[in-house]
Write a structure and sequence with these properties.
Length: 286
């Protein structure tokens, strides 16, 4: 039986599909393969003698240096994520797996992987977990988080916080008469109207069904009342959707919290106040 020749380890390094570098214990590159040069938009020769810290995003350098220093103490293996800066200034998210090699001489073996696609998927999943898939507005979970932050700021800075709860009048009739696709179009139109009227510091959310809410940071109750009127003007009672004109009213309730209030106690109370006021407003409009 014929014996296969031993593999060319130098060729494995040079032609690896992953970015690979050999570095001194303090991170200075002895060698970088072709894949790493292509990933970073620099030649292997250009990288030799430099450190990957030189091309690391400034906000990520401290973490990368700490990883390198830790390996000098543990002589083990570690994996961390950071961003490298390409020559055009683009930030490239990467995962760097670094192993200590005793040598001689002692050195680091670094494998660099582009994780752009994974980061995009993670960002998409994170967005979906906190946003309503139909309207794109924050969902109830993110609404609660934004409200908590607003109340914490109000507690620190002694600024008032207001919450508006909005419910569509006649929405069930729209679904029954025109079907759910038209009902969905109504919800999307209402969401677009909300975002067009609100300030950048306000957060509009879809709580579920035809119920929406708005968190208004640093907002006096009188300002929230003016906002409610602007919303009524923006949604006057009818919406034109294609060839159909549908009647959809708007009931609004307002809850308010004075500056300095305890956030834990105020969070449920302000939503309950706004919800109660919304139902009272709906009863008046029947």
């Amino acid at each position: 039986m014929s014996t296969l020749p031993p593999p060319d380890l130098g060729s494995a390094f040079t032609n690896s599909p992953m970015g690979v570098a050999l570095a001194t214990p303090d991170g200075r590159l002895h060698a970088a393969n072709r894949a790493l040069g292509e990933l970073l938009g620099r030649s292997s020769e250009e990288l030799r003698g430099r450190t990957l810290f030189d091309v690391t995003h400034p906000d990520d350098v401290a973490g990368a240096v700490a990883v390198c220093q830790g390996l000098s103490e543990t002589h083990g293996r570690t994996r961390h994520e950071c961003r490298f800066l390409l020559p055009d200034g683009t930030a490239l998210p990467v995962q760097v797996t670094t192993s200590w090699a005793d040598g001689p001489p002692a050195h680091l073996v670094m494998v660099v992987e582009d994780v752009t696609e994974r980061k995009a998927v993670e960002a998409r999943l994170l967005h979906l977990s906190a946003h309503d898939p139909l309207t794109g507005l924050p969902n109830r979970l993110l609404f609660r988080d934004r409200l908590r932050h607003a109340l914490e700021r109000g507690h620190r800075e002694h600024t008032p916080t207001c919450v508006l709860v909005l419910d569509l009048d006649g929405f069930k009739a729209v679904n029954d008469r025109y079907g759910h696709p038209t009902g969905d179009a109504v919800l999307i139109a209402v969401a677009a109207t909300l975002t067009s009227v609100l300030r950048a510091s306000d957060t509009a959310a879809r709580l579920g069904g035809d119920e929406f809410a708005v968190v208004c940071e640093n907002t006096e109750r009188s300002d929230a009342e003016h906002l409610a009127e602007r919303l009524r003007e923006a949604l006057p009672g009818t919406l034109s959707l294609g060839t159909a004109t549908v009647g959809v009213g708007l009931s609004i309730g307002i809850g308010s919290v004075d500056g300095g209030a305890d956030p834990e106690e105020a969070q449920e109370a302000v939503v309950r106040e706004a919800d109660t006021a919304m139902y009272a407003d709906k009863a008046r409009r029947r």
